[in-house]
Design a protein that fits this description.
By secondary structure, the protein is mainly α. It is 50% helix and 5% strand. The chain contains 2 helices and 2 strands, in the order H-E-E-H. The protein has helices at 49-82, 112-163, and strands spanning 92-95, 107-110. A two-stranded antiparallel ribbon has the order 1-2. Helix 1 runs antiparallel to helix 2. The longest helix is centred in the C-terminal third of the chain and has 52 residues, at 112-163. The radius of gyration is 30 Å and the shape is rod-shaped.
Length: 173
């Protein structure tokens, strides 16, 4: 097959990768390196940057084994799909001897009944395996987006905190 796109019924499964091994420090500097604009005024709230960072670290620690297992399983599934005889699509029957009872080298004949059943099975199971893998990949992508959004929230809070100023004390010096 020269076309790299999956056949009809198959899901195109992405390769997954965890971009961080641990969350970046909450420095208040955006990805471009410039500091963001000051945030608008809001009511009082309490944020623990260490809790945000710890949550990211736990999530990343949980995501890595899932991504590694997914990638290994994806390779196994792709190998199974590429194997033209995994389910018996090219099965043969071995027949020994001849009609006169004399010893003869064995002959091999196509087992067309098994071959047809195997081809039908492959046509059903291969797309099902790719769809199941796609569900895992989509879920992990959503988890990755959530982790990135959690980090962005921590970065924004840290930027706001670093850039906040207390008003001067009035009355007493």
């Amino acid at each position: 097959m020269t076309n790299s796109s999956p056949p009809p019924g198959y899901a195109s499964d992405p390769q997954l990768e965890v971009l961080w091994t641990e969350p970046p420090g909450l420095t208040g500097v955006s990805a471009s390196g410039s500091q963001s604009q000051p945030p608008p005024l809001s009511g009082a709230f309490k944020v623990s940057p260490q809790s945000v960072w710890n949550t990211e670290a736990v999530m990343l620690g949980s995501a890595n084994p899932v991504v590694n297992a997914y990638n290994a399983l994806n390779e196994t599934v792709q190998s199974a799909i590429r194997d033209p005889n995994l389910y018996g699509q090219e099965a043969t029957v071995k027949v020994s001897g001849n009609r006169r009872g004399l010893a003869a080298p064995p002959d091999y004949f196509d087992d067309t009944q098994l071959q047809q059943a195997a081809q039908q099975f492959a046509a059903q199971i291969n797309p099902s395996m790719t769809r199941a893998l796609r569900a895992v990949a989509d879920t992990m992508q959503t988890v990755g987006v959530y982790i990135a959004m959690l980090n962005a929230a921590g970065q924004m809070y840290t930027t706001a905190d670093k850039n906040s100023k207390l008003p001067p004390l009035s009355g007493k010096s």
